[in-house]
Amino acid sequence: MNNSTLKKTANWFRCVGTLSESSLKEEECNVKVKDKEGNVSNKKGKRIRGNISMETKNGTFTFNVYAQTPTSQGEKNNRWTMYESMLNWNPQIGGDNSLPVTKACVEGQVSINDYVSQQDGRVKTTLRWSVSKGTTKVKDDESGVTLEATGFIQSVKPEVKNDEETGRLLVTLYGADNNGSCYPINCVVEEKLVDAFEEYYEVGETASFTLDRVMHHVGPQRKTVQRALGGYGSVNVNAGYDTEELVVVGADEPIEEPDELYTEDDEGNEIPVETDWINPETMKKAIKIRNQMLKEMEEKGPVKKESVSNMLKKAKSVSKKSQSKFDDFDDFDEEETPFDAEVENDDEDFESLY
Q1: Higher pLDDT residue, 30 or 262?
Q2: pTM to 2 decimal places
């Protein structure tokens, strides 16, 4: 690792809420295992995968779950029992009405999901929220989703709607994954924090941010009116729409560039200084590479999707021996989810993956 290469930036989220829906399922699979010499083999194992939808005071949000045992190193997954317990959580929709709805806390990391839209052929980008911890031991008064992330400030601009500034700021942060690639985190700064944000932070700086994941209503709320026949409606009717946002609720001071980018180890070898500071020139190069990748994705066009009926017909005609190839995933970091990077509407369509 050197200072001309991006290292993984920190990010971690925590969500506390009630379980709205769950598509989690456990199934047998083949696990690709790599030994210390780098040799790859298939091992019989199990996996749990699917989506869960959590209802909070700030809206209802979807999270991805994926776990397998053994791990890609051939070891027992120490969190397998925890994932199995999540299968027994009782959702509000499609659950057991005789039992209370499960209130839970899930934690994990975000990663990027880029795909080409089937509708307009344009590249769409969303964050994938992957769960690596889950528990039902939570405080009754907690509810919401918060993300702690270190990011490079790539742009800051006023939010404009209907040709008028709203008073809020639109901020694009960039983080980095395990592969040295960058990804955007789009967030907003509410009007009450705008002056402080503009005073403390500038484009090109790196800082640690606290972001709340919320559903924001755009447009007016139309009050119900009394009709000629009957009376008023039970609730007000929204004239606008709801959209998901990440709202900046706090941040640390900008991380300063170290006085020296390199130091020496005990043997006198030059090594980079450990720092969370992101070299602006390195990030600019990474963003340029990412933009070229997105351009090539768009030129290639959307991935064609088969109809469910065709997929079922193919599945029935495949023998158990050949079926095993569909159970294989490439090696992945235990903190990441090995889903295809071009899954469309992964965070919006609850059933899109399954």
Answers
A1: 30
A2: 0.80
Under the banding of pLDDT at 50, 70 and 90, the label for residue 216 is: confident
The C-alpha angle with vertex 340 and arms to 339 and 343, in degrees rounded to 5, equals: 105
Nearest to 177 by CA among 149, 156, 205, 211: 149
- Are the beta carbons of 148 and 11 closer than 8 angstroms? yes
Q: Is the pLDDT of residue 46 over 60?
A: yes
Sign of CA dihedral 230, 236, 238, 239: positive
Instruction: Identify the CATH number of the domain in which residue 22 sits.
Output: 2.40.50.140
Element containing residue 130 per DSSP (H, E): strand 123-135
Is 138 within the bounds of a domain? yes
Residue 335 lies in a domain: no
Rounded CA separation 17/213 (Å): 13
Range of 140's domain? 11-224+234-264+271-302
pLDDT digit string, tens, across residues 65-109: 999 999 999 999 999 999 999 999 999 999 999 999 999 999 999
Domain-located, residue 51: yes
| DSSP state string for 252-285 | PPPBPPPS-SEEE-TTS-EEEPP-S---HHHHHH
| 45: nearest Cα among 77, 74, 70 | 70
Whether omega before 184 lies within 30 degrees of 0, making that bond cis, reads no
Dig out the tokens for 300 from the structure. 């290639």
3-state secondary structure at position 60:
strand
**φ and ψ at residue 100, rounded to 5 degrees:** -65, 145
Q: pLDDT at position 235, please?
A: 65
Question: What are the distances in angstroms from CA 227 to CA 74, 111, 121, 236, 283?
Answer: 68, 49, 44, 14, 59
**Block residue for tokens 């789009």:** 186
